[in-house]
């Protein structure tokens, strides 16, 4: 592990939505891993505004943030894992206010969290999203077989990114706030 | 005698009975909405300036609300309105067959803003159903928890959701003629908020960068911090249980809460001063603004904040403990109090589904309440939730919201109903900080950085968009002072060694037990009606403030509160071409109710595991 890096691993997503609940469902497994003291593993569903206020209040900020999420995207197979790097950028003010409106009224969304965090300048240089393709929303507590099969890989990738960051062997996609809602 | 439309009368001893000689006492007329739609269709075909204006979704509200209106852009009038809840709330279905002890945790998830009030409402329903009286400190701390939830909720709505509608950016876009006027209008409450003129206030209401907007964000944190000392977490507290709270409270907890609560003393003065200045400016600048969102002050509220010496959770004594609450339960018709009795508030409730995506249920299990007051087959204790998704049609069914009525009248709910009823009824017991005069509520705010001051919210002559928000602003000091009253009580109880927080209970495994929780969300009235049979939940019905406010037409054609308020709203926005029309007056009106749709609607797992949200048409294009 890189020395002296404070890392936050945050899971984001609704519960009881099958594959869409990869974040909250894998949280206990992530918490069970023996992490160095500088790594914090927490659920990040408690409202972007509150989360931003928490990050602002830290005396020693995080150097790296890793979010584990499951967002349905076109052209991906169920269980496919994508690694995104947050590149910053912001949508227009109306869209940011829409994100704040959703955030303040209880909507759970990593995209809102990223945009609001960017607006309030809380993100460190390294913010990553490990994003698992969930397929369509299905209510329930269980993953489908394809996602179950990926769980060890998801946990290992989260561990690697959290401890060592990215390396050249990884395929990294870029995520930007100014194109997120196009 | 509070009912004019339901077939219920009272004898000389005040005992309610069903009027005699009626073959079908609860029969009601069902009007054909198609007649109005045909007329509108003809008008739109003949006149290019009469248009459908649809808001889907209505932004800056929690959850899925869409609004359809037909507007005459030449005469600047709204001709027709339909309020649509576009998602199904399945919590009644989810809760059926479960252990009642799960209800607080599950129903809390009905909303991402006011989960705590749903949890408490569940707890109250169970307390009534099986007879559990919480200890005094449990009741008092529950009150503080609720007040803190309001102190989170009201600033959030006033500055983050409704506030931008009055900001310099929006006003410049929609009514530029007001900008110079605002710059030349001195702010009357400069002494408390520091702004020279109204335009300066409007600039700081600008979203994302205005100081008032950002300050409200930080105040929500203050309230949340205080909340989690008692609730454990927010918005879904872990400590709310039937019989009290599952947490120990010490003087140290109280001190932590107090150190945050006092920040709302000065903030209360500031917020009420800000909104008085802004709303007075609008109303003075153009008297037509008084007509925006106007409707009769027909409101309903359950009352909140129980007195520990009065609350015993029984249905038998609910009128007494209801009237002892810091906010008085009751019903207002045309601004006059027609009842403050919880039994009558409950007895007059019905829910109709003629214009909603539900099937009508059969049966009339509870013909009376436990003390003999007749109950309609449409009463929540008799209602069943049977979803029936279908085509959206203004002629027939167009919402996932039901149509609740009291005495067959659509009722409005809000934080403002709480302050209005309490001020008007003058029934709330004595308080160190609150004084109800019958025409106002005086709120004595203690000193913090600012000197102490008495704020006075006055019952307005007209009930409109601006007065809803103004009253909500005064609910900040109102809630803070109720919290202070309870904080002092809690301190006394702890000093006397009365530190018990909850009463143990067991769910009876046999028999039928019924109860209802009567509590209040940030945006008003909330009831949970519960039937326990054989130790499990047999039926569970939730009526939220937005269920009332966003209601579609009644079966007999009366518009729901949003629909009526928008229908009465004049179009005061300035625009050169119809294409430039933004609809700010309509949006201000809808947002003045503080819509919160998650607990009005929710997702549905249809038969197996597919979610209906994908199958519901929310776009108004092409709807009949």
Return the CATH topology of chain B: Cytochrome-c3 Hydrogenase, chain B
In CATH terms, the superfamily of chain B is Cytochrome-c3 Hydrogenase, chain B
The proportion of residues forming helix of chain B, as a percent range, comes to 25-40%
CATH top level assignment of chain B: Mainly Alpha
Overall, the morphology of chain A is globular
Main sheet strand line-up of chain B: 3-4-5
Q: So what's the oligomer here?
A: heterodimer
Distance between the termini of chain A: 37 Å
Mean pLDDT of chain B: 92
How many domain units of chain B? Answer: 1
Which chains share the greatest interface? A-B, 23 and 31 residues
The major beta sheet of chain B can be summarized as: 3 strands, antiparallel
Question: What is the count of β-strands of chain A?
Answer: 6
Query: What is the CA-based Rg of chain B, rounded?
Result: 24 Å
Strands across the major sheet of chain A, in which order? 2-1-3-5-4-6
Strand content of chain B: 15-25%
How many helices of chain B in DSSP terms?
Answer: 19
Helices and strands, with pairings:
The complex is a heterodimer of chains A (182) and B (624).
Chain A: E1 7-11, H1 22-32, E2 39-43, H2 48-57, E3 64-69, E4 81-86, H3 93-104, H4 110-119, E5 126-132, H5 145-164, E6 172-175
Parallel strand pairs in A: 1-2, 1-3, 3-5, 4-6
Antiparallel strand pairs in A: 4-5
Chain B: E1 8-10, E2 16-18, H1 34-46, E3 50-55, E4 65-72, E5 77-85, H2 91-95, H3 103-108, H4 115-130, H5 136-161, H6 168-174, H7 177-183, H8 190-193, H9 198-204, H10 211-231, E6 240-241, E7 244-245, H11 251-261, H12 263-285, E8 299-301, H13 318-323, E9 330-333, E10 336-339, H14 342-347, E11 349-352, E12 403-406, E13 409-410, H15 415-425, E14 434-436, E15 440-445, E16 453-458, H16 465-495, E17 512-521, E18 524-533, E19 536-543, H17 545-549, H18 561-567, H19 584-592, E20 605-606, E21 610-611
């Amino acid at each position: 592990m890189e020395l002296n890096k404070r890392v936050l691993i945050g899971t984001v997503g609704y519960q009881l939505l099958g594959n869409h609940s990869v974040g909250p469902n894998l949280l206990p497994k992530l918490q069970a891993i023996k992490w160095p003291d500088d790594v914090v593993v927490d659920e990040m569903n408690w409202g972007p505004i509150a989360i931003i206020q928490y990050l602002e209040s830290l005396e020693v900020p995080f150097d790296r943030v890793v979010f584990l999420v499951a967002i349905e995207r076109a052209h991906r197979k169920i269980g496919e894992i994508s690694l995104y790097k947050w590149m910053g950028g912001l949508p227009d003010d109306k869209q940011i206010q829409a994100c704040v409106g959703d955030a303040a009224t209880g909507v759970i969304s990593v995209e809102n969290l990223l945009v609001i965090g960017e607006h309030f300048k809380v993100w460190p240089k390294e913010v990553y999203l490990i994003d698992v393709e969930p397929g369509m929303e299905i209510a329930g507590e269980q993953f489908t077989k394809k996602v179950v099969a990926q769980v060890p890989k998801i946990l290992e990738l989260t561990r690697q990114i959290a401890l060592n960051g990215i390396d050249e062997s990884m395929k990294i996609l870029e995520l930007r706030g100014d194109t997120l809602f196009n | 005698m509070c009912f004019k439309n339901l077939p219920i009368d009272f004898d000389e001893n005040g005992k309610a009975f069903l009027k005699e000689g009626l073959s079908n006492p609860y029969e009601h007329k069902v009007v054909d909405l198609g007649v109005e739609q045909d007329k509108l269709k003809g008008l739109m075909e003949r006149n290019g300036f009469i248009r459908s204006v649809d808001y889907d979704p209505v932004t800056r509200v929690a959850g899925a609300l869409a609004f359809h209106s037909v507007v005459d852009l030449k005469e600047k009038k709204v001709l027709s309105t339909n309020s649509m809840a576009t998602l199904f709330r399945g919590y009644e279905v989810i809760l059926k067959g479960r252990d009642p002890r799960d209800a607080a945790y599950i129903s809390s998830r009905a909303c991402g803003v006011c989960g705590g009030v749903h949890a408490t409402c569940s707890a109250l329903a169970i307390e009534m159903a099986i007879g559990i009286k919480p200890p005094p400190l449990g009741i008092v701390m529950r009150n503080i928890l609720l007040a803190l939830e309001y102190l989170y909720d009201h600033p959030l709505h006033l500055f983050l959701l409704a506030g931008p509608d009055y900001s310099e950016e929006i006003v410049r876009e929609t009514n530029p003629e007001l900008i110079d006027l605002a710059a030349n209008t001195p702010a009357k409450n400069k002494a408390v908020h520091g702004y020279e003129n109204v335009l300066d206030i409007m600039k700081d209401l600008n979203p994302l960068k205005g100081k008032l907007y950002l300050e409200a964000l930080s105040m929500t944190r203050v309230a949340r911090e205080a909340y989690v000392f008692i609730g454990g977490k927010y918005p879904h507290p872990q400590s709310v249980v039937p019989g009290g709270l599952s947490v120990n409270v010490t003087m140290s907890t109280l001190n932590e809460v107090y150190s945050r609560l006092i920040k709302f003393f000065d903030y209360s003065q500031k917020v009420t001063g800000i909104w008085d200045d802004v709303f007075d400016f609008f109303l003075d600048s153009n008297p037509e603004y008084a007509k925006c969102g106007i409707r009769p002050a027909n409101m309903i509220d359950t009352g909140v904040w129980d007195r520990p010496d009065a609350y015993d959770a029984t249905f038998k004594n609910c009128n007494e403990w209801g009237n002892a609450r810091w906010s008085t339960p009751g019903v207002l018709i045309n601004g006059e109090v027609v009842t403050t009795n919880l039994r009558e508030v409950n007895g007059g409730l019905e829910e109709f589904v003629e214009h909603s995506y539900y099937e009508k249920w059969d049966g009339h299990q509870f013909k009376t309440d436990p003390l003999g007051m007749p109950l309609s087959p449409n009463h929540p204790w008799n209602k069943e939730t049977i979803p029936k998704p279908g085509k959206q049609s203004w002629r027939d069914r167009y919402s996932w919201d039901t149509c609740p009525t009291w005495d067959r009248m659509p009722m409005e709910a809000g934080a403002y109903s709480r302050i209005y009823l309490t001020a008007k009824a003058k029934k709330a017991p004595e308080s160190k900080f609150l004084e109800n005069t019958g025409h106002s509520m005086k709120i004595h705010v203690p000193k913090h950085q600012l000197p102490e001051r008495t704020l006075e919210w006055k019952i307005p002559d007209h009930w409109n968009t601006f007065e809803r928000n103004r009253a909500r602003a005064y609910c900040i000091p109102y809630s803070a002072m109720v919290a202070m009253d309870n904080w002092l009580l809690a301190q006394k109880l702890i000093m006397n060694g009365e530190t018990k927080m909850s009463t143990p209970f067991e769910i009876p495994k046999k028999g039928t037990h019924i109860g209802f929780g009567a509590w209040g969300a940030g945006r008003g009235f909330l009831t949970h009606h519960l039937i326990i049979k054989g130790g499990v939940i047999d039926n569970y019905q939730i009526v939220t403030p937005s269920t009332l406010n966003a209601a579609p037409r009644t079966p007999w054609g009366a518009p729901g509160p949003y629909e009526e308020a928008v229908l009465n709203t004049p179009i005061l926005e300035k625009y050169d071409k119809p294409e430039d029309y933004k609809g700010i007056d309509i949006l201000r009106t809808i947002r003045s109710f503080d819509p919160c749709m998650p607990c009005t609607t929710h997702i549905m797992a249809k038969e197996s595991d597919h979610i209906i949200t994908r199958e519901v048409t929310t776009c108004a294009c092409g709807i009949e």
